[in-house]
Amino acid sequence: xxxxxxxxxxxxxxxxxxxxxxxxxxxxxxxxxxxxxxxxxxxxxxxxxxxxxxxxxxxxxxxxxxxxxxxxxxxxxxxxxxxxxxxxxxxxxxxxxxxxxxxxxxxxxxxxxxxxxxxxxxxxxxxxxxxxxxxxxxxxxxxxxxxxxxxxxxxxxxxxxxxxxxxxxxxxxxxxxxxxxxxxxxxxxxxxxxxxxxxxxxxxxxxxxxxxxxxxxxxxxxxxxxxxxxxxxxxxxxxxxxxxxxxxxxxxxxxxxxxxxxxxxxxxxxxxxxxxxxxxxxxxxxxxxxxxxxxxxxxxxxxxxxxxxxxxxxxxxxxxxxxxxxxxxxxxxxxxxxxxxxxxxxxxxxxxxxxxxxxxxxxxxxxxxxxxxxxxxxxxxxxxxxxxxxxxxxxxxxxxxxxxxxxxxxxxxxxxxxxxxxxxxxxxxxxxxxxxxxxxxx
Length: 442
Description:
442 residues; disordered N terminus; mainly beta
């Protein structure tokens, strides 16, 4: 990481808005080893898909120089089962955009960079893009972004199957009976592989009364069937506390979801401005279960702890980074603690033998494989695990295509790994360049 400011920018992508206050294809390096584990690769080969200074569409270039204010790649990087990589990049004119690169098995036959969305672009509805949210892309190339135009108006823009964008929602739409939007769209949006959409926005009742934030679900892109899942002031299950806000959420094709946010005790609310967080797991149409909660929220059956970073769905459960005090965090897979981190004295030893002090949210791949970026006393490492074994697949100081890794950015997107076990990450090198790297199992 270049400096603390860069880290805080990245942190904003993995912490919900409500909780913060609203190339070349050559070269490879093989790192680590799983010693024959049936569910872990023996190593990874790395291919640079895009590099700072590289070509973008319309005679534009990826920003070549790193600075305190702007980096060439700042935002989520995702890869889907079609082997399409979607990433955010800043060009030489300081305009941010979202781009796509396609590749074939083994990282070969890398395509030219394609523009998905860019500041200054005129959309089919006639609006001009001024700001783009992190957004999401699923395994069918359906993509959704919350966009602000040059007139300050928001919309949720949706592109089906990689096709042209359409203005899908605006902040004051009457979408369906209980989905009457009335306020700013949150930047977070989740789209399942079957095209189900989950989003957050203020809303109003039929009588016009504004209720504050609501969490909404649209099955199969059918807006007429939109429904409200949770609302501000709903009781947290098993507590005497009410929801105050929603952070980041994740939805799958079966209607299972995770959401974290903040809540307040209904009795003896200290009103001190502190975010008291919760993590809920549920299925649309059913009562959710509280998994973790700040002890002051009084969650019966909830594990005490704060969840500030994005929770992640996995087959058969979830993964979450949980904070027990300002210095201590732990990575949980379902109710099992896998990794401890401690800012003061260090926690679990990484596979490279350095104490872990913090981490980003985990990302889940096929056969129970998990990848997580851990920050250690010696730098940062991307660690792979099958729930039992841990090994490092890439770390600061490693050499890739003749360059030495200076810092990494991994796990900002829940879709940073695909069903083939291939993953993508941003790597910054000691020579001042940066690349989107594809890691292919070998």
